[in-house]
Amino acid sequence: MLKNIVAATIAISTAAAPVAVAADDNPTVYIAGDSTACVYGEDENYALPRGGWGMYLGEFLKGAEVIDLAKSGRSSKSFTAEDEYREIFDNIEEGDYLLIQFGHNDAKNSSQEDIENRYTDPTEDKDTEGSFKHSLYTNYILPAQEKGATPILLTPVSRNKFDEKGKVTDSHGLYDDAIRELAGELDMPYVDMTDATADLYNEIGSLKAKDFHAIFKDTSKGEDGFDNTHFNRAGARLMAALTALRLQAVCSNTIGAYVNNEAVNALTEMTVTRGDYTAEVVRLFGIEAEGSDCFGDVAADDENYGAIVTAKAAGIVAGNEKGKFMPHEPVTTEDMAVIMYRALRYVGALNENGDTSPLSVYSNSDYISEYAREAVAQLTDKGILDAELASSEDKLQPKASANSDSVMDIIARSFEAYTSALELTSGGDMSLDELEKVE
């Protein structure tokens, strides 16, 4: 699915071929924006942590440095009070670029504090103080131009929210329209990420779109734990690639010339290691198990050491016949299914003595290893693995490396099975104001 998404995006976005860039031409690309673009650390409120597209944009640009200074919860108005704003305009210079993406928080006016600090009016023109257009123009566009840099407006990314007809809802009101209008009035480039993300989500549907979103530790938050505004790290990387390709299409003779199409294509083949996958599963379900024993090939300073120790103590992972775990090897589809199946049983989301009838489908499936047949069968039965994929040797390559797309798919579906089995539901999605209180 991810390969199809990226291929379709490339086909659309490369209508204008990029020009060659001089080897000594190395601009800096600054990002001013909100939580959908910013850099995240540990993100302790999340079981599957957030990522901003700005964190990964540099992977898809060659010969340009990206400095992501976006900040969670900020509007075009409130961002100007931050050190990050001053850092941009203390350092930006001729030949640099400034990507500007606001709109999520400019609409907030539910409190007097928000009205004073964050709200901007989307209906007024750029010459009216207090308007969204005025804020973008006076606080970002003019200062960048005065420094000889090129400002580029981006409309805000869409949320993962669908209407009763199965189409992405408009969650930005007049703010994305205001950006389009301002760009037209000033005859300057803009990237329509609202439409780009809406088109993507409309193509793949709401179920698949969940694969790209962060998950709260507290399942009473978000929509049964899913944060429909903020991306997870894999989703943020995809959005960064989408942003790069749209920049290439709109600004082919300037910043678009730096887009690295090889990196975009490689995104579809990106694999996940056994260690990283195990750590994701342990964090996803908050698994705790006392243990001190680890595998001989997992170094104590490995970033996933603690998670692997926990998973081993819980019986979620096991070594091979030589007692090795091979943490840096790509996780296979079979391994991915087995580890997740054991984790779901450990947290009580699958009954250890449950229905064994699905096993009959795979009892003679020689293309699936014997140790993985039960896991594949039970996860397929629960809708976590696609039945068609699991029953077709041509479509399922169980012993091959699993790519990031398939990993995020099984994580999202498994978390839904977990919340359903344990009846951990939120009763509805969080409001934007509630989401922004999670820092």
Your description of this structure?
The model is unreliable at 12-24 (pLDDT under 50). The chain is elongated. It has helices at residues 2-13, 83-91, 112-117, 132-146, 175-186, 193-209, 233-250, 261-267, 274-285, 305-313, 333-346, 359-362, 370-381, 387-390, 404-421, 432-436; strands spanning 28-33, 46-48, 50-51, 65-68, 97-101, 150-154, 190-191, 213-216, 226-232. The protein has 16 helices and 9 strands. The chain has 2 domains: 2-267, SGNH hydrolase (Rossmann fold, 3-Layer(aba) Sandwich); 274-421, no CATH class. Helix 1 runs antiparallel to helix 8. The strands form 2 sheets. Strands 4-1-5-6-7 form a 5-stranded parallel beta sheet. With 439 residues, it is of the alpha/beta class.
Offer a few descriptive terms:
alpha/beta; elongated
Strand tally:
9
Q: Give the strand order of the largest sheet, numbering strands 1, 2, ... along the chain.
A: 4-1-5-6-7
Number of helical regions: 16
CATH architectural arrangement of the largest domain: 3-Layer(aba) Sandwich
